[in-house]
Amino acid sequence: MICLSHNGYNNCAEWSQQFLNQCHKVSSFVAFMCWSLWRARNELYFEQKYSSPIDVIWRAEKGFREYVEIEAPVPDEVPSPMARTPVRASTWSPSAPGFFTLSADATFCLAKQRSGIGYVVRDHLGQPLLAVSEVSFFHSSVVGEAFALQSGIAAALSAGYSSLKVESDNLEVINLVNGVQKDCNVYLKFVCSGYTFL
């Protein structure tokens, strides 16, 4: 719930900033809820593991709290004598106005011979414009990830969303599409041909 009050603000800009911060929190929680629902659906479909609605909500809340803790600015700390390896954190950011964001993913269960893909296209405000989840057949998770991207791009282009920012959680597929990785099977090269991540 977004609660805004005009009390304590010197100008409209401060009030607007609070509003935008609240909207960011709400949209972030909605993203975690969608992810939790997607996981619960896959666990039920592929593993026959049932999650109650309370479990799904709890998982989303837990993930959201962890995200907020990571995203929160860290106070100045006393430097540790041990060198730290920087960790690259990835956070979602909206596309520029006039562009659309395509997020794609795949799920694969070799033991049960089941697999599926999903993708969502959002506008520059983060509003979903197109979302698909479907059973699909492929022989490895990386091929599934590439197929999810290919299907998502084709659906987005068919719907008229031609200026795309494409997201995938599979570095192998991203490197293949960008030409960084050359050694892979012919089918995977075919699936990824013609697309470039900017």
Structure description:
There is one protein chain. The chain has 198 residues and is an alpha+beta fold. The protein has 2 domains: 12-71; 100-192, Ribonuclease H-like superfamily/Ribonuclease H (Nucleotidyltransferase, domain 5). Helix content is 44%, strand content 16%. The protein contains 5 helices and 4 strands, in the order H-H-E-E-E-H-E-H-H. It has a 4-stranded mixed β-sheet, with helices on one face. A hairpin with a 4-residue loop joins strand 1 and strand 2 (114-122). The protein is globular and about 60 Å long. 20% of the residues are buried. Residues 74-89 have low confidence and may be disordered.
Q: Structural class, from secondary structure content?
A: alpha+beta
For the termini, the CA-CA separation is 36 Å
* Helix share bin: 40-55%
Order of helices and strands: HHEEEHEHH
Classified by CATH, the class of the largest domain is: Alpha Beta
Average of the residue pLDDT scores: 75
Under CATH, the topology of the largest domain is which?
Answer: Nucleotidyltransferase, domain 5
Oligomer: single chain
Strand order of the largest sheet: 3-2-1-4
Looking at the overall shape, the CATH architecture of the largest domain is 2-Layer Sandwich
Shape estimate:
globular
The main β sheet shows up as: 4 strands, mixed
Percent strand: 15-25%
Count of structural domains:
2
- The total count of helices amounts to 5
By CATH, the superfamily of the largest domain comes out as Ribonuclease H-like superfamily/Ribonuclease H
